[in-house]
Amino acid sequence: MSFLEIKDLKVHYPIRGGFFHTIQDYTYAVDGVDLSIDEGKTYGLIGESGSGKTTIGKTIVGLEKPTSGKILYNGQTVNSKRARKKLGYNKEVQMIFQDVFSSLDPRKKVIDIIAEPLRNYENLTKEEERKKVLELLNIVGMPGDSLYKYPHEFSGGQRQRIGIARAIALNPKLIVADEPVSALDLSVQAQVLNYLKKIQKEFNLSYLFISHDLGVVKHMCDYIYIMHRGRFVEAGTREDIYNNPIHIYTRRLIAAIPEIDVKNKEKYYMIRKKVEEEYNNYSSLFYDEDGKVFDLIQISDTHYVAIKDKEALKNVENNIA
Amino acid sequence: MEAEKILEVKDLHVAFRFQDKYYDAVDGVDFTLKRNEIFAIVGESGCGKSTIVNSIVGLHDKNFTRVSGEIIYDNANIANYSEEEFNKIRGRHIGFIFQDPLASLNPLHKIGKQIEEPLIYHTDLDKNQREERVLELLNQVGINNPKRVVNQFPHELSGGMRQRVLIAIALSCKPNIIIADEPTTALDVTIQAQILDLLTDLQKEIDAGIILITHDLGVVAQMADRVAVMYAGQFVEVANAEELFDNPLHPYTRSLLQSIPQSDSLGKDLHVIRGMVPSLRNLPRKGCRFAPRIQWIPESEHEENPELREVSKGHFVRCTCWKNFHFEDEGGN
Amino acid sequence: MWKTILRRVLLMIPQLFILSIIVFALGKAMPGDPFTGLITPDMDPAVIERLREEAGLNDPIPVQYKNWIVRILRDGDFGRSYTYKMPVTKLIGKRAANTLWLSLLTVILTYLIAIPLGIYAGRYNGSKFDKAVMVYNFISYAIPRFILGLLLLLFFGYRLKWVPTTGSVDLGLEPGTLDYFLSRLHHMILPAITSAILGTIGIVQYLRNEIIDAKTQDYVKTARSKGVPTNKVYTHHIFRNSLLPIAAFFGFTITGLLGGSVFIETIFTYPGMGELFVSAISSRDYSVINSLVLLFGFLTLLGSLLSDIIMTIVDPRIRIE
């Protein structure tokens, strides 16, 4: 059952100009997306930089104001600050960021960083608070003596784990994770991903996992949204997206993953060239004259593709997919 | 026929100064680069991979860095060349491609001028010839409207275009060596693929050797002919790309490969390497540097002074600990 | 770009209008009026009262304001100076030329001193020269403007008698002759040097830091990697990029000079706008004060517009449309 639903969300930024500095046009950062989040699932949001994926994440946690559309939490709108407060929404939805260096206040000790949300929402005694923070540190595999240290005393991976501990302090239902491992080295990345999975099981958390790394998303996510130019071009389960990608943009993304498969490198090279050709030849089936992505069409129980019409779909299925 | 060696690095040490003491960030690195090959150096941040290539072209801060060992290019040891001497090699014999294409281009100069610059200092071409060469280079790196691009500024181009411009700069004087330091890390994955394919295509035309620095094993697999895996200032394994991925031997290489999310990792935990990369000042200077991170392997498996040894043709591994290595959860054999 | 400049100029109108109200109100809020100083025990209060009535000083304040503005806009009449008994425009016109010349000389000297110092200190930072420049900077920072002015005046003017201690030109010289020009220069040189010494501080410091910063920029690394000779790296890449903010600051420098002229001209009894301003305040010469403040305000706005224009010329990343 979805506890969070997003309906026709649009976030437009005005571009000002002209003689009276009036609004000339808009940047369509997010231009009409629907998304729903079930308990205990992980959703991937993939796209290139500037595709609007981070804007969606920020809008969900209330850091960005929607231009239009609805965010429904258990069926109730949480577009306004007041509604979010009344429904306790801010407690339930937390965010972790890519930039672990600047998302933690360098002048605060770990205990103060992690306890901050507790202090805002729960009345704990000093001792209770300390116990709770220790417990949280334990969950993300950090030693208890971290309590009174400062962020700069930790490595990037440890800092990200502190960020995670802070995010789960209030037992949220959803964590929006914006590129949480992009800045980390491979071996550290693995550790953070493992903790995210472990915590998910323990708390029945949902994740909205925003990333450009298709390998990581594949590993983490049950359901994936591919985003391009502010809209979803394809949505489906992991299998739908990786085994049966339909949209040329998705196909291009997947072809671009550098596979660890030296023997077939020539083959991958050829595939990339072929996909690039498809991208140029078939773009009119997937984008209208203004370059806007078409609306999603359902093609199976779980799989949606943004394509011109059913006919175009057939055309594509016969020729490229 | 054995390909021509164009660069030879012997026992390279690069040390950084902290409060009057020098610490080796690169600690005894040897390799050769052959014409027409892509040699990749892969490792995690801080392992010293960028330090190697910076010292090859003298781009390090000479006030805080000490380079020793030999870097042999064209029969001369260039390791301790002066800035003036390096200026005759850089741009002309060795081209350099950087990670962040926006920051790496001068925001106030037009693209044409930035590509032309090495031609001014290294060739006898006159103004018109240089302009022609710039257009030719832009064509070569796949920019469709070079006449327009030469008059644009960096901020007017997309990330992928900018990286193409940097590649054009590196190629401008037909160098023998191209060093690409994380050339696609700052780019989106689709652009990354385009740039890597471009480098592959160019590789066939330009008759140079490429040193590719990256942290991405996928990029290595798709690009490299030969690979060196680097850990804490040293190469721990060197092999042909195919051999390295088919038959990784050193515990660090094996661990890294295990920690990549791949199709067969679905539903499983990823492998995590225990402990942390030691900081430069706390590097173990004796024994196997990876030993603290595989503590379940008995000390007797390690060498006292681990060396890089050839274990099969062209496949080098440091230390002896690889022979009986097993992952912690696999149990001994 | 022309459109923007025009818009900015038009925007000045309401800004100046608001400024004029404030200026007028503040002037009225000051105790006393031009005739207060005339009062002596044997003066008939009725005469003073008649003078006040004639000057319109007994009208309601809004009426006075209206009369003042209407005269300015309709006749370009800024009123008469009560103390100098001449039209304000004529008075200020003479003084403005003096201040303009002094400012011009100051600007030239400032950049002549600051740019080489900043460039050398930045290029060879950590060297003895750099340290000397830093010491110079700290000292000139610590010395208040008027004290430096008085010290220089005492030493070069009264002790050594190298320069005149008052006025803007020797008497009895024919304007347009070389002697006249040299005499003016002679009168200006000490105030200009005083002003310039203090004006350099910010620029030297800023330029030095910009250069040190630029040296570590990636594009400088690129330039070096191309084999560009070190000197050319500095002239083509580092200096130009570092001078950019200085150039952009030029407009504000001018504004700063106007403020500074109040001190400098008073100390050196140099007959410019600053000196006029101070004496007008002490004699409650409203029409002069109001006109000068309006003029200063106008020049400040002009200075910031100038800065913006320079910025768009020197930095291709900034384009105003």
Name its key features.
heterotrimer, B: 333 residues, alpha/beta, Rossmann fold, 2 domains, 8-stranded mixed beta sheet, 4-stranded antiparallel beta sheet, 10 helices, 12 strands, 29% helix, globular, C: 321 residues, mainly alpha, MetI-like fold, 75% helix, ABC_transporter-like_CS (chain A)
Please estimate the helix content of chain C: over 70%
Distance between the termini of chain A: 32 Å
Q: What's the shape of chain A?
A: globular
Poorly predicted regions of chain C: none
Please give the share of residues in helix of chain A.
40-55%
Mean pLDDT of chain C: 84
- What do the pLDDT scores of chain A average to? 90
Strand order of the largest sheet of chain A: 6-7-8-3-9-10-12-11
The ordered H/E elements of chain C are HHHHHHHHHHHH
The Rg value of chain A, from CA coordinates, equals 21 Å
| Count of strand segments of chain C | 0
The helix/strand series of chain A, from N terminus to C terminus, equals EEEHEEHHEHHHEHEHEEHHHHEEH
Counting helices, strands and paired strands, the structural category of chain A is alpha/beta
Query: What is the terminal separation of chain C in angstroms?
Result: 5 Å
Poorly predicted tracts of residues of chain A? none
Percent strand of chain C: under 5%
Radius of gyration of chain C: 24 Å
CATH architecture of the domain at 88-287 in chain C: Orthogonal Bundle
Protein name (chain A): Peptide/nickel transport system ATP-binding protein
GO molecular function (chain A): ATP binding; ATP hydrolysis activity
Pfam families (chain A): ABC_tran, oligo_HPY
Domain ABC transporter (chain A): 4-254
